[in-house]
Each structure stands twice: as C-alpha cells, then as structure tokens.
UniProtKB/TrEMBL annotation:
InterPro entries: P-loop_NTPase, UvrD-like_ATP-bd
Keywords: ATP-binding, Helicase, Hydrolase, Nucleotide-binding
Residue span, UvrD-like helicase ATP-binding domain: 159-301
Organism: Tigheibacillus halophilus
Pfam families: UvrD-helicase
Name the UniProt record assigns to this protein: AAA family ATPase
C-alpha cells in the first residue's frame, strides 16, 4: 500500500502485513506467503489441515465480519474480559471491580466511549492508592537504591520549602519512587491495558452454542483458532478480523491525514481486508491496481471486490471500475 499524506511530498509505502503487525501488539502474524505455502503443501488426509483450509474462505469473507459485528453488539451488555490493575504483585483494582463499573454505564453508550470513561475512572481510583503507597516499607528500600541525582533533586526541593526541616527530603524521595512505579500503570490504563482483548476475542470461538450461519465444521475451526490465539499467533486469515475486533472495542484508529491510498496487487486482498481498509481510511480516496488473472490467493475468498461490478457494491458506492 502507498500513502500520500497531507503536506508531504513523498509517498510512504508499507506492506499490508506490516500495517497489521504494527497494530496487533505482541501477537505474531503469519505472512500471506506462509499461508499460501500451507495451502499448497497441506495434507488432505490430515484433519488439522482440512479444518484450516475450510476456515480460510469464511474468515476472509464479509459474513465473518458480520458475525464479529453481532458479537460486539452482545458485548455492550456483558462478556468483555478485563485485567487486574497490579503493583508489585498486589491488586490495586480487581478485574471484577472494573467490569462492574464498565457495565454500570449507560447501555446506550458505545463500547469505545465506555472504555474512555472507564480509563478516566481508573486513573482517579488509583490516585489515593498511589498516595497511600508512599508510606510503605518497600518504598524506603527503593529510596536507598536511587542515584545521586535523585538525592540532589530532593535536597534542592527541601531547601526551597524549608531548609531546616530535613524530613521533607525523605518525603520527596518517597513520592519520586512511587511516581516512577505508577507511571507504567497509568500508561497501560490510558492505552486500555486493563482490557483482555485476547480472551474477549477467544470467547467468540469458545461459546459456540446457538451460533448460526457458520461453516459445518465450525466447532473444530474454533478449537484450532483458540489454540493459535493461546500461543499469541495469528494466521493470515485471523489477523485482519482480530484487529477489526480490537477497533470495535477501543474505536478505530482512523487515518485522517492520508490524502490518497494506492493499493497494488489488489486482486490478492480478501473482502474482509478491503472492508477493514475502508473502515480505517473512511475519508481517503483510493486507487486499486490489480489483475484478476494474476491472483495467487484465490483459495482465500470468492468475494474479491476487484472482480466485476462487486467493486461498486462492496467497497465504495462512488468508485469507478476500469478493465484494461
């Protein structure tokens, strides 16, 4: 993909794989070439191979996107998994407390708005906890390990307020230690680290009872998917859906500064991937370049928007289609 940004003369180039990898976090993302190699070398007599082969078209389709959308609607009322806020092995705020606060908010609010309010609430909740921590024994142990510069800074602060009261120096040092300990906690809260995205997404594949419009061997597909997610691994067909789901929780990272997007080899993108690109670049003009006769990932989906007039229906209503 090529990005032409506002105010920039140069065009930025990035592969779709790198674009995904930079956004999924600690998960390892399979490359499209690894996926293709698997498909070409898979053993039809091996059950695990046939299960994955059957899952690729579905997970690449708009039906799966709609399936995730329906799941996200259910999460407005229950189901999101949270993490404990922890300091030095001790719970500051439990995941149950966070869940109760999140779901006490107005049901009419969107999930991303609730996330934002929950983050602000958590920052307020840990403020008195941080203050209370300054008097604990572990803080003084850390004070003794601080560098010379920290002691000098505390001394100068002491002199500015009351040069005769040396107890203030210890107070400043204790506050500095606790502040350093709480900085990464506050950062995680601001980046919604109190939400367990992986477990929440896994629930889509563990609570399979009553699910409709899914492949016949859906239960086997789900077990295989959960195994991969547990190992922090995203197959190529899972990477885009996972990131889309993450956006549904926290709000999309809309690229508003990109003026024009050029997508080369467009015949090799799935319908889900095109939908996600549109979701991420809602205000960007796009040019798709490709040759359907050169498609090498035809096993992934039969819904590639580059084919015939599907481009107008599924990608953008205002686009044009030129066949050379």
């Amino acid at each position: 993909m090529y990005f032409l940004n506002w105010g920039e003369a140069n065009i930025n180039q990035v592969t779709f794989q790198r674009f995904l990898q930079e956004r999924v976090g600690k998960y390892t993302v399979e490359s499209p070439f690894e996926q293709m190699e698997f498909v070409l070398t898979s053993d039809k007599n091996r059950k695990a191979d046939t299960i994955r082969i059957a899952s690729v078209p579905y997970k690449s389709s708009l039906k799966f996107k709609q399936f995730i959308d329906a799941y996200a609607e259910e999460l407005k009322f229950d189901g999101i998994q949270f993490r404990n806020i922890v300091l030095r092995g001790s719970k500051l705020v439990s995941k149950e407390t966070i869940r109760d606060y999140f779901y006490s908010l107005d049901e009419g609010m969107t999930i991303p708005n609730k996330m934002e309010l929950t983050a602000k609430w958590l920052l307020q909740e840990i403020r008195p906890i941080q203050k209370a921590e300054t008097n604990k024994d572990w803080v003084m142990e850390q004070v003794e390990l601080m560098d010379k510069e920290a002691f000098q800074q505390a001394y100068y602060q002491n002199q500015e307020i009351d040069e005769d009261d040396f107890s203030l120096e210890e107070k400043f040092l204790r506050e500095e230690v606790v502040d350093r300990a709480f900085q990464p906690i506050k950062k995680r809260i601001k980046h919604y680290g109190f939400v367990h995205v992986g477990k929440t997404y896994q629930a889509l594949f563990t609570e399979t009872e009553g699910q409709a419009n899914v492949p016949e061997n859906w239960e086997e597909i789900c077990k295989q998917t959960v195994e991969n997610l547990s190992e922090m691994y995203l197959t190529w067909e899972d990477a885009t859906p996972f990131l889309y789901f993450k956006d549904l929780l926290f709000g999309p990272r809309k690229e508003r500064m990109v003026r024009h997007l050029f997508i080369d080899e467009a015949q090799d993108y799935s319908a889900f991937q095109f939908a996600y690109i549109k979701h991420t670049f809602p205000y960007t003009r796009m040019t798709l370049l490709g040759d359907s006769n050169q498609a090498i990932y035809t096993y992934a989906t039969d819904e590639n928007p580059l084919l015939t007039n599907q481009l107008k229906r599924k990608l953008r209503p205002d686009c044009s289609y030129n066949q050379l």
